Amino acid sequence: MFSSQLLMVVGLAASIVCCCPPSCPSGWTYLEKTTSCYKVIKKEGGLDQSEAQALCVSLGSNLTSIHSDEEHDFINDIAETSVNVSTWLMTMTGGVRTGGKATDWKWIDGTPFDYTNWAPKMPDNDWQTALQVYTAVGYPSWDSASLGPYSTSHRHWDDIRADKKFINAVCKRPATRQ
Q1: Residues 109, 129: Cα–Cα separation, whole Å
Q2: Pairing label, strands 105-107, 91-97
Q3: 143-150 — which CB contacts under 8 Å span 24+ positions?
Q4: Predicted confidence band of residue 12 (pLDDT cuts 50, 70, 90)
Q5: 116 near 145, Cβ under 8 Å?
Q6: How many whole angstroms separate alpha carbon 140 and alpha carbon 114?
Q7: How far apart are CA 177 and CA 124, in angstroms?
Q8: Residues 89/165, Cβ–Cβ less than 8 Å
Q9: What is the pLDDT at residue 164?
Q10: 101-129 pLDDT, tens per residue?
Q11: Signed CA dihedral, 43, 45, 49, 50: sign only
Q12: Coil, strand, or helix at residue 7?
């Protein structure tokens, strides 16, 4: 009798723990596949990589890492802007170059650099140490005539200088269970 009551209590406790869905703080967006929360951050005049990371850390997060097509598409969807922009500097991520080779990259949050979605011909400069996503649909010359081989760059990655000011950045943090 005692063991069946104990089993019932353990089962009840497990169902209580499992019944609470993951949640995000107000203003954050949840992605079930990663059980993570994401927030697009902006600042008047833009953000460079160190400013963006500092802001993410102040929010209990890091600049985003990207590990799958689904996560990549999700980040593009939440960060995409329809504002006409006159800059190539779009959405900052937590990608950091660690050396001179095209494969020398890591995520600022320490997770494996196990997925890529580079634009054609990218990464192209070993002195560009940050990773951005082309998310602005209103760029004045998003057409194949003016962009040539870069015409398919929208929603893809580019290596870029970390000290440049970006339109926005995406922070990422684990979801919590309440």
Answers
A1: 16
A2: antiparallel
A3: 149/120, 149/121, 150/119, 150/120, 150/121
A4: very low
A5: no
A6: 33
A7: 42
A8: yes
A9: 87
A10: 888 999 999 999 999 998 877 888 778 88
A11: negative
A12: helix
| DSSP assignment string, 129-149 | -EEEE--BTT-TT-SHHHHGG
Torsion-angle region of 27 (φ positive above 0: left; ψ -120 to 50: alpha; else: beta): left
pLDDT digits (tens, 9 = 90+) for 127-166: 888 888 876 555 444 444 444 444 455 678 888 889 988 8
Respond yes or no on whether the N-terminal peptide bond of residue 174 is cis (omega within 30° of 0): no
Place of tokens 């009840």: 12
Which architecture does CATH list for 23-177? Roll (3.10)
What's the sign of the alpha-carbon dihedral 12, 17, 21, 23?
positive
Reported pTM? 0.78
Surface-to-core class of residue 121, CB atoms within 10 Å of its CB (0-12 exposed, 13-18 middle, 19+ buried): exposed
Residue with tokens 């329809």: 82
